[in-house]
Amino acid sequence: MMIQRRPRTLAVACVLAATATLAVSGCSKSEGSDNNASSDSSQAAQAAKTPESSSGSGCSLQSYGAPKLDLKDAVVGFSQSEKEANPFRIAETQSIKDEAKKIGVKKLLTTNAQSQLSKQISDIQDMLAQGAQFLIVAPLNSDGLEPALKAAAAKKVPVLTVDRKLNAGACKDYVAFLGSDFVEQGKRAADAMIKSTGGKGKVAILLGSSGNNVTTDRTKGFVDQLKAKAPDMEIVAQQTGEFARDKGQQVTEQLIQSKPGITAIYAENDEMGLGAVTAVKAAGKKPGKDIKIVSVDGTRNAVQAIVNGEYNAVIESNPRFGPLAFATAQKFYGGEEIPENVIISDRSYDESNAKSTVGNAF
What we know:
Blueprint lengths: L1 E3 L5 H8 L43 H4 L10 E6 L6 H17 L3 E6 L4 H13 L4 E4 L8 H9 L4 E4 L13 E4 L2 H16 L3 E7 L5 H17 L3 E8 L4 H14 L5 E4 L2 H13 L9 E6 L2 H8 L5 E4 L5 H12 L7 E3 L4 E3 L3 H4 L5
Parallel strand pairs: 1-3, 2-3, 2-4, 4-5, 5-6, 6-12, 7-8, 7-9, 9-10, 10-11
Antiparallel strand pairs: 11-13
Helix pairs in contact: 1-11, 3-11, 4-5, 6-7, 8-9
């Protein structure tokens, strides 16, 4: 029964890499966004990288101190961090729901923190009160969830984190982290920017929200790579767009006024990048040409913008965590050790492949 709430060891990594393809169905939303998660069942599910890309000591059921559990007779909770006006969050939540249904989880509880840390804490505590026996958490921030983690530990409920890392103890406060190498994403975005600009010009960075490792790492990777490979490219501004399209548009409008020499924009997610496209057009310039735009995520709208000539490159950050998350849970309860970090493999899009691969976007 599905319930919607309102108010790196070798064998493990190899198994996780073999998870099946996931069908992600569309999801309507009330926030008024014009973005939609694709229902294309041919979309690529996540796959873990080679075993060497998984890291950290293994965590087993025994070392974690949790009781054995059959997921088909269990209550599982999923804590989403942000409102689903963002295609990444829509696809992520739908992926968890779809896979829970596919493998026959007895009951799935889902909550949404609406970008409020205090609500995510209370959401997790509430799911524990309803009998959740295993938790999948997409943390809002890397810090601050300690009260929720302690509540889970007190009930010996394992916590699996996805898409953002916690500054907490692996195999103590949580089992493992499943997600991308965010520093590498920043480096790849820098490489794509260098290719698009010839390694020269003035670039502005639209930062993600503060307080999480995604923003910190994507910034570091990009800045360090530009410094190493394109010393003639100057970073003239770094300003947060909060991972939101409207904020990305607003910030870009301000930057075009205050820094009229900007020739490139690196957005740390597609929503901010698409907001930048609107702002560039409003300023009478051509996005993708007068001002190059590179971002991270892999949404259908951003990849289509490449096809349309209004965008230059997108580095994927695959949100389809359902198969990998539940495969990890099954291996954990099967007695196998789970690596501290299970790093997924992300593709990239540019003018050379966007038209033929837009169907893989979410």
